TrEMBL record:
Entries under Pfam families matching the protein: YgbB
GO biological process, one term: terpenoid biosynthetic process
Molecular function GO labels: 2-C-methyl-D-erythritol 2,4-cyclodiphosphate synthase activity
Residues annotated as domain 2-C-methyl-D-erythritol 2,4-cyclodiphosphate synthase: 2-71
Organism, scientific name: Linum tenue
Name recorded for this polypeptide: 2-C-methyl-D-erythritol 2,4-cyclodiphosphate synthase domain-containing protein
Length: 74
């Protein structure tokens, strides 16, 4: 991304899982994402939610991640 002349304008990630609860880890995960991607912390948003015990996500058999990234030319 950086070699191609782009940088992160905004990153919005949602993690969907029943357990473990991510509240205690959200800032550490966000900081790691920023470091790995070389992104400004103000441009990275991380949310965690449950799937209300519906399907494999809610039954704690799987997890999902939905991410949208806006890349901007430097």
């Amino acid at each position: 991304m950086h070699e191609a002349g782009y940088e992160i304008g905004n990153l919005d990630a949602t993690l969907i899982l029943q357990r473990p609860k991510l509240s205690p880890f959200k800032e550490a995960i966000r900081a790691n994402l920023c470091e790995l991607l070389g992104a400004d912390p103000a441009a990275v948003n991380l949310k965690a939610k449950t799937h209300e015990k519906v399907d494999s996500l809610g039954e704690n058999r799987s997890i999902a991640a939905h991410t949208v990234v806006l890349l901007m030319k430097k």
